[in-house]
Fold this protein.
Amino acid sequence: MNAEIITVGTELLLGQILDTNSVYIGKTLAEAGIDLFYKTSVGDNVPRLKSAIEAACARAEIVIITGGLGPTVDDITREAIAEVTGKALVLDASLLKQIKSFFEKRNLLMTESNQVQAYLPEGAGIIENKNGTAPGFIMAHSGNTIIAMPGVPHEMHAMMENSVMPYLYEKMGGTVFSIKSKTLHIGGMSESAVNNKIEDLFINSKNPSIGILAHWTHIDLRLTVKTDSQKNADKVLNELKEKIYERLGGNIFGEDEETIELAVSKLLMAKHLTLSTAESCTAGLLSYKLTNMAGASGFFMGGVSVYSNEIKTSILGVNEKVISEFGAVSAETAGEMATKCREKFKTDIGVAITGIAGPEGGTQSKPVGLVYVALDIKGKVQFFENRFGTGREIVRSRAAQVALFKLYTALKNS
Amino acid sequence: MNAEIITVGTELLLGQILDTNSVYIGKTLAEAGIDLFYKTSVGDNVPRLKSAIEAACARAEIVIITGGLGPTVDDITREAIAEVTGKALVLDASLLKQIKSFFEKRNLLMTESNQVQAYLPEGAGIIENKNGTAPGFIMAHSGNTIIAMPGVPHEMHAMMENSVMPYLYEKMGGTVFSIKSKTLHIGGMSESAVNNKIEDLFINSKNPSIGILAHWTHIDLRLTVKTDSQKNADKVLNELKEKIYERLGGNIFGEDEETIELAVSKLLMAKHLTLSTAESCTAGLLSYKLTNMAGASGFFMGGVSVYSNEIKTSILGVNEKVISEFGAVSAETAGEMATKCREKFKTDIGVAITGIAGPEGGTQSKPVGLVYVALDIKGKVQFFENRFGTGREIVRSRAAQVALFKLYTALKNS
């Protein structure tokens, strides 16, 4: 089976937004072994969208369109599909009811323009949108299947997962080729250090292949295999994965969707440990990340953002003398912050971050990017000095990531 | 003048990488006033790339292709263009010399496969690549201009800037059209409510045109104008902007790069007010956002993440009776949190958020997505009840955004 993607929106052509939708759809189709030969972006223009749909229908069985299903006049996908398929747009009463109830549940006023979202080309099957007002739809058209979904990413993702992929799997029946990937997340190493450790695997491994991707905060290795069975895919991926673990195991903190905060959460819950945070330059980023997962209340008690020195003392009880002797950005102050926070919040662990995020505020001996992380685990304090370069956002996100990675390592080895 | 972009690479179709190249090129063309009606991504396959190039040539004067110029067997752009244009691939001796010197300068071994990069379709003009081994080229083909560049972003950017854009500007001759955009950020309204207020402008305003884009947290209106002078562009954009301000002024919190946290920061600094935060479900997101800008220490003193009820009482001093009578997620508790935090941190303003981020924890009367925001501005307390739907990340980001928007509105009107 083969497919094409059309993403709709003038903002895509003007370079105003990144097209993440076609990345998600492309990946999802690849995992199902559905071939994708082209993807096209087109602006909010009916004739041009029509001709893109016609060209796609001439080449591919399945045409997946995202965007242009909103309530405003520049949302033209319904109209273009109706014209291509020669169907009228008709009001679907059940859909109108759903949209009305969506607004009622949220105490919002439904406007007249939202009514257009209840019109669909005659004969189209509705794809329910549980997260928004724009429904999607599936319709047959002379041997092709046209699938339309809204461009809002989380709405589209849910519709792909719950409706479109089950529909396509059923349509395919029998044997399915499969492309499968596994991503390993690596902390505490540079891209070239990772590369040096596994260069031979990189060069010699073709299927599965290895891709390396450097983020601000960590390194990803992506292993990709194509086989005709799910079982075999898992087997060869696992063999390569094991080889990489032998070399980099201590630095791999997670796989696929597993973030560093999730890895830390699991360890905290398994060990029945509680945690609190004291943050200066990151001002809440660490506590925000630690509570990204449902169930965080099982281990996270709370935290403080102590932005000024006065607050470090008055709210957290950090010893003024430590700050005046060593400075607010010092291993000593970080340690005091971790300990006082652990005591105040009555937790097993206190994690502290203090540093200079910049762009101003650095000195020769304490430059922008200098960040101290301290862990107090049941009274045992560890410090870590880091130099993260420049860029306020980069320094802050690296600081939170390193605090989590150091905590992960400490918990794993304890 | 109009153009199309073709990006080449199977990894683009498999969803393994984001296509940032076409975003860069689209933006650069838009700024030069060159229309872009389509962009297409195609895999490493000669017949399919050929047909994409042919389709683009039939629609647009300029066809810009990136990717597929590397030294390996899956780099097929040279071959596809040679076939479309009916030209042979010929070795360019000067190019071979350049490639050799690139390797020598870096003390790297030039492999045989790099030689293929010195072959170009007969009659093509070379675009020098100072940052890599893959040269680009420009060639005429029955009324069209085909431009090929490598897919490595920084190599392509330099070639666009130094060679391709000067070439296109010269080709356009005399008057250069310019596309200019302005984005207005709107809080506290749904997409359809915004649409209703300005539907006539939407429909009647063609140049500048209006685009609407809904985010999780706010709505953007993007005004785009195409004119033959920079001065005129600013004038007509401003005229339309004024009309929109007349209708939506109270909800517009910023333009272009101005985020809600930046707008709030400016007001706090102008009014010499200090701020502290008390967060339950957002657990630090609000304080993190408030400190995104350098200089935040001028107004932000600190904050607490009070995740458990016990901590709300022990750390912040929230009255236990208020929590037990009204619940942790209530206007009353939010108000207590704002006031206690203002007192503890000795600030002019305390901002509090308490809510149910989900996915678990909701009840019929207090469902997931219910969030209370409270502001205590010098002792005067305001509450806001919100129902944000589901999705933990969505609820949390909307909660922080609404707190900032309510604070913005309160500060602006005070």
User: Anything to note?
Assistant: The first strand of chain A starts at residue 2 and ends at 8. Chain A has a mean pLDDT of 91. Chain A touches chain B through 96 residues (CB under 8 Å).
